[in-house]
Amino acid sequence: MATQCVRCGRVLNLEDRRCPACLASLTNQQIGQMELTQHQLGELARIEKANMTTRFARKSLLTGALVGLAGMIITLHPLLIIAGGLIGGSVGWFVAWRGWGQMWAAGLFAILVLPCVAMVAFSPFTFLTTICAGMVLGVAVELNRGG
Fold first, then answer.
1. Rounded Cα gap, residues 68 and 138, in angstroms
2. Segment holding 32, helix H or strand E
3. CA dist 100 to 24, 85, 132, 138, 142, Å?
4. pLDDT in tens, 61-99
């Protein structure tokens, strides 16, 4: 004969004293608030971890890196090209993971790359290039969302 866990709903054997999935006590004791909170936090962490590695997040990481590289290659400065690729990939992944939109991606990319631009080769052209690369990165991440 089988019974069901009151917390997670898993089907268990009658002789079990604790649920092997969530460790809830199956005797007539009530589940404690601390035990319930711990299980809920564990579930949230598991869901967030799964969201970090979705196909969309991986695609956005690659797209962000390529757009960051391509955007900064116009500057012809090796350090800015490398920074653009690394920061673009990070921003692409982060924006996809959090489910943010195009404007967040553009702003985040610009905020993170502009200090590098200011230290290495600041000019109005590189500033404009950084803003444009951020906008293209945001559009590319949004396009990944659909496909």
1. 11
2. none
3. 36, 20, 18, 9, 9
4. 999 999 999 988 988 889 989 999 999 999 999 999 988
Residue 99 dihedral angles phi and psi, to the nearest 5°: 75, 25
More confident residue, 140 or 32: 140
pTM of the model: 0.69
> Tens digits of per-residue pLDDT, 9-18?
777 776 677 7
C-alpha to C-alpha distance for 94 and 110, rounded to whole angstroms:
14
- All residues at 6 or more sequence positions from 31 whose CB lies less than 8 Å from its CB, including other chains: 6, 7, 24, 25
End-to-end CA distance of the chain: give it in Å, rounded.
Answer: 46
Q: Between the CA of residue 46 and those of 25, 29, 31, 43, 66, what are the distances in Å?
A: 22, 27, 21, 5, 29
Q: Which helix H or strand E contains 117, and what residues bound it?
A: helix 102-120
